[in-house]
Amino acid sequence: MIPVSIFRKYALLLPLSGLAAACGSDATSGKGAGKTAGPPAVSAAKIAQINVLVDASGGMQGFMHANAPGQAGSGFQQTVTALLSDVNGQKSQQAAPPAFYFVKEATGTDPRVLVPATYNELAGAVSTGIQHPALGTELPQMLAEALKLHAKKPGTVSIIVSDFIYGPKNPGETWRVKTDVKDALSTADAAGLAVSVFAGTSEFRGNFYPGNRTHSQALRGEKLPYYIWVVGAPELVGRVDGSLLKRLAGQPQAHFNTRFAPPYAVLDHFQNAGEWYKADAGAVPAVALTKSVSRKEPAEIVLGLDLKAVPAEWQKAAAQGLRLDPAATNAALLRTWPVAQEPAAAGKPYLQQYTHLAKIRVNQIPGAGALLHLTLPRQQPAWVAQASTANDSNIARQGPKTFLLADVLQGVADYFADQPGAQLSLDLPVRVQRAE
After folding, report:
1. pLDDT tens-digit profile of 68-77?
2. Residue 174 has what DSSP assignment?
3. Please, what sign has the CA dihedral across residues 274, 279, 281, 284?
4. 342 near 20, Cβ under 8 Å?
5. φ, ψ for residue 21 (rounded to 5)?
6. In this structure, are residues 338 and 319 in contact, taking their beta carbons and an 8 Å threshold?
7. Which residues of 414-432 are buried (b: 16+ CB within 10 A; e: fewer)?
8. Is 427 a residue whose pLDDT tops 60?
9. Pair (114, 139) in one structural domain
10. Is the same domain home to 63 and 13?
């Protein structure tokens, strides 16, 4: 959080690393069993750089403090220290070594907001406490500074770790929070940007500065929220979410324009109907029909989906929430179900590499073929409203909530409102065509 004057809100930034896309394989064999079908092609180029920005303000001292010998560090310390180690250990996957920064408020004597640091300096401050806490900077400026790093070096990903408490300096302008966040992001092109948010809670020992700028509160181990934001190109953010941040997979999440590319494939000889074979069409799964289809004689195709690397909420929603964009085929999604509920899976090892199965019926094929899309519409996670409060002046009684969190994340959503991809959690294309 970032209190102003004696009540400054402090925030941290951790530049984000990139996203990962994986291609799956179908172990079945049969007619036309060619190249494994996977998701749309995603660049395998190295991430240009991962930047890690950590708030060095007094408001974060409650998460980062010295511990007595034998005493376990706070949940924040354990999680963020491990994350920093992961970033530092993946240098070979980046074109340039990771960069580390402390985040503070610009002053007349030091106009910098981001202060370069070494890995050891940053990890030491997280694990043993901030020795010389600075004033914090406001959330919109944090985002703007991170995006400046991206502009200097395309392909950069920033990981931002903070309590992300933001209240305007004028308490009468809290209604501006959504707009302020949207404006800060608007320095970048929405089509080339994604934001992922991971929420966590940790015991807090120290002074808490409310976002509504009332008096500070001394806490002695009560749980407070903190957040890790990943910001960068959509594909790169997905890569980071699926690999570097795997340890956070069980935490509440929100994703904006992030592109996940889970492995998926057309399955041969499993509950299929009609005469068709898998076509070798590159990165997108493709089916070639050797006989015309109609309502009376449709083709039925089963896809295997491996959703283990996508957010847990999406995995739960997939069975009921997947939709099919049929293009011009009159195709229909007949059923989506977990592999764990498929009786035949026990005897078919090739099915067990997937988490879900989806059956599609096709009864019309345009002359030039068509690209169907299995999609999962994006929904605002329920945890956001539950973790948000309009008054944090008695946080010890309220429990782990963040001042105007729902408004902050609505500002992010508003920024991506015109991006079609941002309205979908998953978009898995499948090509259907006539056999040549």
Report:
1. 888 888 999 9
2. G
3. positive
4. no
5. -125, 135
6. yes
7. ebbeebeebebbbbbbbbb
8. yes
9. yes
10. yes
**Beta carbons of 241 and 196 less than 8 angstroms apart:** yes
Cα–Cα nearest to 159, from 19, 55, 16, 11: 16
Give the whole-angstrom CA distance, residue 33 versus residue 185: 46
Q: Are residues 51 and 156 located together in one domain of the fold?
A: yes
- Give the Cα separation of 252 and 196 in Å (integer): 11
The predicted model gives 363-380 an average pLDDT of: 86
pLDDT in tens, 196-252: 999 999 999 999 999 888 889 999 999 999 999 999 999 999 989 988 888 898 899
Tell me how far apart the alpha carbons of residues 337 and 127 are, in angstroms, rounded to a whole number: 44
Query: Does 76 share its domain with 142?
Result: yes
Amino acid identity at 269: H
Burial of 66 (0-12, 13-18, 19+ CB in 10 A): exposed
Report d(CA 260, CA 39) in Å as an integer: 9
Do 186 and 275 lie in one domain? The reply is: no
Residues 95 and 187 in one domain: yes
Work out how many domains the chain is built from and give that number: 2
> 152-163 burial by CB neighbour count: b if 16+ within 10 A, else e?
eeebbbbbbbbb
Asked if pLDDT for residue 273 goes beyond 70, the answer is yes
Interval 392-419 mean pLDDT: 94
> 414 and 288 share a domain?
no
Residues 255, 221, single domain; the answer is yes
For residue 380 the two structure tokens come to 């605002």
Higher pLDDT, 134 or 105: 105
Whether 19 contacts 175, CB under 8 Å: no
What's at 153, amino acid-wise? K
In this prediction the pTM is 0.82
How far is 53 from 392, CA to CA, in rounded Å? Answer: 26
| Average pLDDT estimate for 404-430 | 93
375 confidence band (pLDDT: 50, 70, 90) = very high
Q: Identify the domain containing residue 341 by its residue range.
A: 264-377+428-434
d(CA 8, CA 209): 7
Chain mean pLDDT for the chain: 84
Kind of pairing, strands 424-434 and 286-289? parallel
In this prediction, residues 327-338 reach a mean pLDDT of 90
6 pLDDT band, cuts 50/70/90, is very low
